[in-house]
Amino acid sequence: MAEHSKEGGLDETDHIILRLMQENGRISNANLARETGLSPAAMHARLKRLETRGYIQGYTAILDREKMGYDLLCFISVRLQLHQPEEVEHFRSVIRQMSEVMECHHITGEYDYLLKVAFRSRKELEQFVLDKLTPIKGIAHIHTSVVLNELKSTTILPVA
């Protein structure tokens, strides 16, 4: 029996599967089975278990942002005026509904939230900030940083 790790019961075979899946989400069950030495049925059961337990949250295609016309990548820092539960939840609820927001992180430091947003133009950025962000009740300050050069971007987590 394989040794389980501290990541909630993952063994070395699970780690191999997760590494392979991150490198190529379209890898076939047969190829995964071959790489791990499992039967296709055992591999299928492993994948289902990893999905059910939430280690694999979903499958998606990663698009090239610039080829899709989103040449302007921005990080927008937001500070709230008050940190009352209803104000915070209102902000979070509004942000979750904005399709432009790719990521939103509650952070420590000078600002409360960090948004990752991509735009096609400076005009789209301006409209987003002025027409969508600024009107949100409870925002005290907005700071926008434009990415000049994306040195590294990955969705791959280091798997032991």
Describe the structure.
The chain has 160 residues and is α+β, with helices and mostly antiparallel strands. The protein has two domains: 62 residues, Winged helix-like DNA-binding domain superfamily/Winged helix DNA-binding domain (Arc Repressor Mutant, subunit A, Orthogonal Bundle), CATH 1.10.10; 75 residues, Alpha-Beta Plaits (2-Layer Sandwich), CATH 3.30.70.920. Helix content is 36%, strand content 19%. The chain is built from five helices and four strands, in the order αααβαββαβ. The N terminus is likely disordered.
Which properties best describe this structure?
Alpha-Beta Plaits, alpha+beta, 4 strands, Arc Repressor Mutant, subunit A, 160 residues, four-stranded antiparallel β-sheet, disordered N terminus
Helix content: 25-40%
The CATH fourth-level homologous superfamily of the largest domain: Lrp/AsnC effector binding domain/regulation of amino acid metabolism (RAM) domain
Tally of strands: 4
* Total of helices: 5
CATH topology name of the largest domain, in short, is Alpha-Beta Plaits
Computed over alpha carbons, the radius of gyration is 21 Å
Structural domain count: 2
Along the chain, the helix and strand elements come as: HHHEHEEHE
For the termini, the CA-CA separation is 18 Å
CATH class of the largest domain: Alpha Beta
CATH architecture of the largest domain: 2-Layer Sandwich
**Strand sequence of the main sheet, in spatial order?**
2-3-1-4
Classify the secondary structure makeup into a structural class: alpha+beta
- Which spans have pLDDT < 50 for at least 5 consecutive residues? 1-7
Major sheet, described briefly? 4 strands, antiparallel
Shape: elongated
Mean pLDDT: 94
Percentage beta strand: 15-25%
